[in-house]
Predict the structure of LuxR C-terminal-related transcriptional regulator.
Amino acid sequence: MTALLQEDPEFTIVNGRPAGGVPDRPGPPDVVLIEDLTGVTVAEAVAPALRFPGETRATRAVVVLKGSGTDRVFGYLRSGVRSFVCVDAAPEVLPAAVRATARGEAFLNDDTARRIIDVALPHGPGDVSPRTAPTTPLTLREQEVFALLTAGRSNAEIAESCGLSSKTVKFHVSNILRKLGMRNRIQAVVHAARATGRGTAAA
């Protein structure tokens, strides 16, 4: 993974902290990669990776999963981690995850997203259909954005795919949720999965 990221001049690799606990450079890195290891609790994995001497904020992190159970994924989520990739993901996935995380966005690889949805569905509201029929139909552009949104794409990915600015995508997403009577993106994803007869949403 280090070699993969070093191929991109956009990234500067900062090695893990040496034994004395002092970081290799002043200040925290923009993104920390956390390897999910068997036998290491979530708290033990997250605490040293996210806290540097003198640091007052949690550093953004990407957890590299090796087929972890859903309970560990939820453990990381409760610890504040919002980005995950599988160790065997395609080469382009890790750089995309690092960039999204550096922007403050969440990043879930397909398998992790499916697992979270599978676990969350039984505990969610019984009806995730729109509360009322849309008073105004979705425009063609909104339909395009909605399809990408429910496929698990981030705002940045939607913007790139549609040739729009991030601000415009946020505007479209807000309009879509308002028209469909939905509270958030997760509700939209689950509704789309059920409407198309899928158990989970595939990104």
